[in-house]
Design a protein that fits this description.
Elements (H helix, E strand, L loop, with lengths): L4 H10 L6 H13 L5 H8 L8 H13 L4 E6 L2 E5 L6 E5 L5 E4 L22 E4 L2 H8 L3
Parallel strand pairs: 3-5
Antiparallel strand pairs: 1-2, 3-4
Amino acid sequence: MDNSSQGLANYLQCNNIRPTYPRVKVLEFLVVQQNHPTAEDIYLHLVREIPSLSKTTVYNTLKLLVDRGLAKVVNIEENEMRYDVILTKHGHFKCESCGKIVDFPVNIEDIGTEGLDGFKIHEKDVLFRGVCPQCLGREKNGG
């Protein structure tokens, strides 16, 4: 995907989404940052550049991107929706110290479903929690 504003506008247009400036900027933030932001994170970042931006516009844009399959919701915390534009299957690791979320490759299809015979599985997620190497290094150095 072309990460330029024009490339992202074309990407939206190819997916039957009118490429308004706020929509392009929301998608650009997701593509460039890839840090699994919340809608609030996106709003607080973009409102500096687009003072007229509303939270409603951010939420509606994210819903549209998810509905069209261009982004997905990642549930890391119970009451918090985060967004991801990496659509290939992968796992997530959340550092309990700094809060950073890291993607890692995993073959989700190989995860067993013993004991779920007769169930219809809609989604498989892999989430690990622990402490990232940077935070471990700070802990070792007394920081």
